[in-house]
Design a protein that fits this description.
Elements lengths: L1 E2 L5 E2 L13 H8 L27 H7 L1 H4 L3 E2 L9 E2 L2 H11 L8 H8 L22
Antiparallel strand pairs: 1-2, 3-4
InterPro entries: Zinc_finger_trans_reg, Znf_C2H2_sf, Znf_C2H2_type
GO cellular component, one term: nucleus
Protein name: C2H2-type domain-containing protein
Amino acid sequence: MTIVPIGGFKCDYPGCTAMPFQTQYLLSSHRNVHSQNRPHYCPVKDCPRSEGGKGFKRKNEMIRHGLVHNSPGYICPFCPDREHRYPRPDNLQRHVRVHHVDRDRDDPALREVLAQRQEGVGKQRRRRTQSSVAEPS
């Protein structure tokens, strides 16, 4: 590890061109890119990415993968069978771009599907309540 004068932490892996990281934690997270180690596993039994399977290099990748199991899914409006569900909107958009090249990404049918907020999916914001704010003395 090399500490860079601007206060960042630079990766010392041979040939790595990543910009310096602001914290030691971010540098440590980045180091997983160069490692074969995959310390994060899907908690769903029999998933190919569960313990003993492929796993993930980064925790956020494992969390994102959880949508495969938890999301009701986005259904392609252009596929005739409508059986395959995509856990994330970007998965559906990539499918449309690759398999339905004649369709525009602004197609009303696609926009309608993408506009449907999946229940329980997405970032939840915690609201600060008045009782959680300290009273000035």
